[in-house]
Amino acid sequence: MNTKELSTSLRTVISSLHKGLRKQLYSANAYSMTEIDTIRHLYHSTSLLPSELAALTRIKTQSMSQILNKIEKQGVILRTPSETDKRKVYISLSPFGQEMVKKIKYDKDEWLQTAIEKTLTAEEKELLEKALPVLHKLIENK
């Protein structure tokens, strides 16, 4: 298999696996990929400005405003005015939002663990484990 075929096959497999993980998550189905990405960035940061979130998710600030309004209504985020500049508002996950992310991560792990246990042989599990450092190298390539 040449590099072009390998890259196409790898992309297809990873996309299908990602879709499989997403389908298992009833709690995430109410959110678009951009909304999930926004929530993920907030989970990994204490708080961010809407403009920072827009830059991280590669969308316009106006679109981010709509996303934030939606997930705020659902109790996922909190808005905190800046102490130094009253024009700025920091966004963070609410306790509900943090628990939601933990549940989603748990559900994904459970689904994938079950899939691995049901479908892979011991040799295939070992091969997958050996492939992980290679996949990490691809992620780190920017």
Automatic annotation (TrEMBL):
Signal peptide interval: none
Domain HTH marR-type as annotated: residue spans: 3-137
PANTHER family (UniProt xref): CONSERVED PROTEIN, HTH-TYPE TRANSCRIPTIONAL REGULATOR RV0880
GO MF: DNA-binding transcription factor activity
UniProt xrefs under Pfam families: MarR_2 (PF12802)
Organism, as annotated: Paludibacter propionicigenes (strain DSM 17365 / JCM 13257 / WB4)
Family annotation (SUPFAM superfamilies): Winged helix' DNA-binding domain
Domain of life: Bacteria
Protein name (Swiss-Prot/TrEMBL): Regulatory protein MarR
Cross-referenced InterPro entries: HTH-type_Bedaq_tolerance, HTH_MarR-typ, WH-like_DNA-bd_sf, WH_DNA-bd_sf
